[in-house]
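User: quick one
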Amino acid sequence: MIDHAEKAAEFIRDEPRTDWHDESLWFIRHKRDKASQDVPEWEQLRELASGIKDNVLSELDHYLEQFEANALQNGVQVHWATDAAEHNRIVHSILKKHGVSRMVKSKSMLTEECHLNDFLAEQGIEVVDTDLGERIIQLREEPPSHIVLPAIHLKKEEIGALFHEKLQTREGATDPGYLTEAARGHLRQKFVEAQAALTGVNFAIAETGGVVVCTNEGNADMGVHLAPVQIHCMGIEKIIPKAEHLGVFIRLLARSATGQPSTIYTAHHHRPRPGAEMHIVIVDNGRSAQLGRSDFRNSLKCIRCGACMNTCPIYRRSGGHSYGYTIPGPIGSILTPGIDLKAYSDLPFASTLCGSCSDVCPVKINIHEQLFRWRQIIAQEGYLPSGKKRALAWFGKIMARPAWFRFTGKVARLALRILPRPFLYNRFNEWGKARELPEAPRESFQEWYKKNRR
Amino acid sequence: MGKDSILQAIRQNKPAGRPLPEIPIFPGREITPTEQFIKMAETGGSQILRAAHVQEINAMLKNLFPEARNIASPVPEITSTINLEEIQSPLELEQVDVAVIRGHLGVAENGAVWLTESACRHRILPFITQHLMLLIPETSIVPTLHDAYRNIRINDEGFGIFIAGPSKTADIEQALVIGAQGARSLTIILTAF
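Assistant: Done. Structure below.
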């Protein structure tokens, strides 16, 4: 059971660091705004993207079959995995067949979700994450805190110390250019040694049977074009119908993610290179169940840009690790209750319901409405913490009875004025932990209205 | 089995059919595609040059990369030091300093260039090289990505890619660093040939 507030409390203990984290993400949100405003048809693109995904979800079985048939025709080997365990077994069997002991991997949230690295490590296979941010957190043995910016929670001093220990960089060196150069040298060696390369998938095109992989560093391409075996792992929802739809999604993706007009590399893979093998693993792992939840199926439209995280006032001030799941932030908070309602029942409450996530979402997912809907379900299923449950039950009774409501208001206004601080600010007052209670007015609005109406 | 049970679950759970929207033709910008391409490519960290004849490229190479020892290019007019036809394994290209490759078209809105496997000769070439030079005819520049996808067939070849600048990262405190895992610089030559 994740207690977001508790983990967030740890995160915000260091106030200047919390501010720094908040401002870093807000800066990216600003870049996103600027990039989106440079495209006059931005809103039309979001509408189109959402509409295309509506169509995809309504015909997902056909598109997947079409995709598989075309990929097979292209000479690609296609595998299907019902869940994380099957996905991991399939990847392992491919590696085993080729006697692979060293694999490089570019960013894939799906393999994080399936805990592939741990599984392969147990089988004696070394997996090296090659995105710089991912490599940093892999060396630190911690999960990513953001889906696009995995090491956004770390200071360059911490990365410098880590690289000094692991990559023998100069002690105390913190220059990002110097550290990146050191990682480049280290990773080149890993690319050259790798016997297989695995990537995530941004888009899979049903009409052509190919996959598109976007990176800024070029690490996905360095991996797959050097190794004799290339593997692409994708969730079933990555499908788009036709090549022309890439125009819509790629125009939206990088602008929403980092404010760039495009990622540096947008690679289209259709056939293995001569003498090499290409595999695609199609994974369900709970997605088809999410498709059946009418209130929540829109979450499957997500293209993993991270814009909802960058804009979220809670995420910015609590950090990705406080969510306890691979995909944090608003989108993570609507995906996780579908995976395990009880374990993640706290996450839909890690929101102010301000709606900023829905406003920036490039595929127009109604994120904040889904957060609210999950709250209702969590309450109905009895997963609210007991304090909140009792408080809400009382609040409901009071709100339903005007006389009780007037009386409670009177008592509260009086209490706020006359009670000494320790009676008001104690462990029962969650609100007052870091905030002042409002100043109590002399009279209620109703009393004022009775006096003043004409 | 995985496939059948996944497809079965999808059939049971999918919503009622929704139509596939049409993508309209979006109007062009006020500035010309070439002007916008140059602006966007430079913003992305690319250097833009022009050449009237393919022979000029060799002089540019000497000028831009005087230290370069290993030059690889599938373009016959370029003076290469590596014969790409003789390369058996992509690992042999690890020492390439500069690669010169013909791109198929440029995209004005994001400064990206589309190139295909056959133009690279080896898929790894544009990534493993320390510096990359791409040649595109100035007349090939299209306004938007929609236009680009109308002009290419992504599955004509086994591999194709849009490259929109030198390899970069901002994973350490959001500080932009050019030269992550791929090419350290990108020079795009707008050609008149």
